[in-house]
Amino acid sequence: MPAADRKEELSANTETEVGRRLRELRASRGFSLRALAERSGFNINTLSLIENGKTSPSVSTLQQLAHSLEIPITAFFESTLAPRRVVYTPNQERPTTQFGSSTMQNLGKDLAGSELQPFIVTLQPGEGHRDPIIVHTGHEFVFGLTGSIEYRIEEKTYPIGPGDALVFESHLPHSWRNSSPQEARFLLILHSPDRHEEPLKRHFIRSLTQKGAFSMKIAVITEDGKTISQHFGRAPYYMVLSVENGQIVEREMREKMGHNQCDHLEEHHHEGEHGHDEDSHGKHVHMAEAIRDCQVLLCGGMGYGAYESIRRLNIQPVVTDQNDIDAAVQDYLNGTLVDHTEKLH
């Protein structure tokens, strides 16, 4: 079979599989097409095309649908059958999803509920992240197949070419980027004992934001809607900015629940253990309830406990020394905003 025909067949298989899973997941939650359309913002015709395998949804589309269905994005690639002890995936049956101009192929589509997630990633020139901002539990394994990429872990950069391998503890801040003029392919295996962290989303969604090809929401802690507050707990509001194609398209001021509890929290925690117990985590979650649809939270300062609680909600906290909201958001979108974790208390 010619390569072009194989590619078309692979794409068709992927579209059918993802569409079938969307229909199953929607039905299992009791949503009609119209109800899901209202929750997700997509029109009924688009959802129908996806469910019937007539169009291939992007990662950003799947992320928005996953949020609407309150499921991890990986659910679209999992089989409804019970997890199998042996999984064999023929080349033509790998579920493939596009992010930006690049693609990821799921090598373990029937590993439902597994802590292990294997992928082949094809990364186009210029795509990836500038700063090491991905953090999750477990370990990560990278093996170069073709071309070359750069993996940055904390302050050190590791070149990955054909045959090169990298294994590391994925709680270390890390990122990837294809700085070469050629396409690169590599094997990526994510292992995370806490699947609620969704390490897959942390890798691929951030790649899209760097290219400006993804719709997202960024929350900023504030007191006046213009400047960034220096204290997460005490500030009464969130400014939520909707971003499309790298541009701010909408602003919304939201009240932050539970901010009056902050002083009570600080009175009961000594320095070095601020807000790490489950009771404090519950209060932090309550404070973040208004921004559960956001992917990023910018603030001028917060405690260690709040920082970890926000991360556990799959929201990326960034402690910045920027004062102006618009400038900080633009720096984040440009990949130049520094996360000053030394300001955590």
Automatic annotation (TrEMBL):
Q: Which UniProt keywords apply?
A: DNA-binding
Gene3D superfamilies according to UniProt: Dinitrogenase iron-molybdenum cofactor biosynthesis domain, Jelly Rolls, lambda repressor-like DNA-binding domains
Q: InterPro entries this protein is in?
A: Cro/C1-type_HTH, Cupin_2, Di-Nase_FeMo-co_biosynth, DiNase_FeMo-co_biosyn_sf, Lambda_DNA-bd_dom_sf, RmlC-like_jellyroll, RmlC_Cupin_sf, TransReg_Diox_bact_type
GO cellular component terms listed in the entry, alphabetical order = cytosol
Q: Which domain of life is it from?
A: Bacteria
Q: Is DNA-binding among the key words of this record? A: yes
Q: Which GO terms describe its molecular function?
A: DNA binding; DNA-binding transcription factor activity
Which residues does the UniProt record annotate as the domain HTH cro/C1-type?
22-76
Descriptive protein name? Uncharacterized conserved protein
